[in-house]
Amino acid sequence: MYWSTLLALAAPALAAPAPQGFGGGGGQSGGTTMLRFGCTQVVIDRIDPLVNPGQAPTSHIHQIVGGNAFNVTMPTDDVSKYATCTTCQASEDFSNYWTANLYFRHKNGSYKRVPQGGSAYQFSDRFSTQTNGGILVYYVSAAPGKITAFKPGFRMLSGDAANRKAIANQKLQNCFRCYTGPNFGGDTAAPCQGGSVDHVGLPPKACAGGIRSNILFPTCWDGKNLDSPNHKDHVAYPTSGPATFLSLGGQCPTTHPVRIPQLMLEVVWDTTKFNDKSMWPSGVQQPFVLSTGDDTGFGQHADYVFGWKGDSLQKVMDTANCMGASCSTQVPVRQTIDQAFNCKVGAKVHENYDQWFDKLPGVGDMPMKS
Ligand SMILES: *[C@@H]1O[C@H](CO)[C@@H](O)[C@H](O)[C@H]1NC(C)=O
Ligand SMILES: *[C@@H]1O[C@H](CO)[C@@H](O)[C@H](O)[C@H]1NC(C)=O
């Protein structure tokens, strides 16, 4: 399996230092690239400039990483012109990435935000392990063939906030890993490949080491539209499904022939202090709920507004055999995590999102838009 191979190369247990021989350039033909870097949090806020531009507050809270041009409404041209800093290690990446937050529901009916942890992939780089409250971002180009980086103004949405049912083909695009113990226990398989550690919905049990969200975006583009009314129709998954695309032979549909990088987001939720079942509502399989009010997890979603400067993303995607944290050294301009922590955006909706809430902010106050 392609992902297994990549992740085996990247897995801390197998290769604590960056694997040798994978930093080299040499054109994209036949090569594979897995750029991975952390982004610390830029803000938690109840706005969504992709789905609900101009609206504050919106129907649910998000956690956002990336450039400081993030706002109630975002410019539709080159976002990198408007941002002056970013929370990502790739300091020319002024994109924004955001997901719903996770809450714990106490048996007394109150909700508390679940804190986030660093990432599982513990190379020595602090940008993977100390993004606390951030997101680990992956851009993967799977051989064979040319991968075309996103264009200025490009945006997309993965998942559907209003969905509450398992969708057969959602498998492998969107999942939750249930860590079996401390230090990311059980973290051996590639993400969202099925098996016992990954679940398409919120894991129906206590996860001793916490929970990780993985959201994989579509990898095919119509080559024309930077966005579409539902933020989805201009992109598509390969006809054979995302997993086979990441192994071999995946084909983009003729309507969406341009292969774009596989963007994947990874969020670690430190649920461990909520594992005492005496605090759980009676009769539930699990006590967590996304900030949308979704206690199934099937409505997990993520938003992307592209904002890399110039052709800096294309250059990295064109670098063959560039893997994981060591691949981030192929990013022309990088910053330290301390610089990233200094980049912040002020919240537009002033809400103490870490208090115990009687009900989730926004949920039920207004009709939900997906
Ligand atoms: C956000 O947008 C408002 C107008 O809607 C503008 O006044 C403000 O400067 C913007 N903030 C940033 C950080 O771009
Ligand atoms: C529920 O329990 C939490 C934790 O003890 C507490 O902080 C919160 O105020 C309680 N909520 C209600 C409605 O009693």
What does this 3D model show about the protein?
The protein has 370 residues and is mainly β. It has one domain. It is 9% helix and 21% strand. The chain is built from six helices and 18 strands. Strand 5 and strand 6 form a beta hairpin. The two termini are 33 Å apart. The N terminus and C terminus are likely disordered. Bound molecules: 2-acetamido-2-deoxy-beta-D-glucopyranose (2 copies). One 2-acetamido-2-deoxy-beta-D-glucopyranose binds next to loops.
- Number of individual domains: 1
SSE class: mainly beta
Tell me roughly what share of residues is in helical segments. Answer: under 10%
- Largest sheet at a glance? 7 strands, mixed
DSSP strand (E) fraction? 15-25%
Helices and strands, in N-to-C order? HEEEEEEHEEEEEEEHEEEEHEHH
Organism: Echria macrotheca
Domain DUF1996: 48-308
Signal peptide: 1-15
Protein name: DUF1996 domain-containing protein
Task: Write a brief structural summary.
It contains 6 helices and 18 strands. The protein is mainly beta. A hairpin with a 5-residue loop joins strand 5 and strand 6 (111-113).
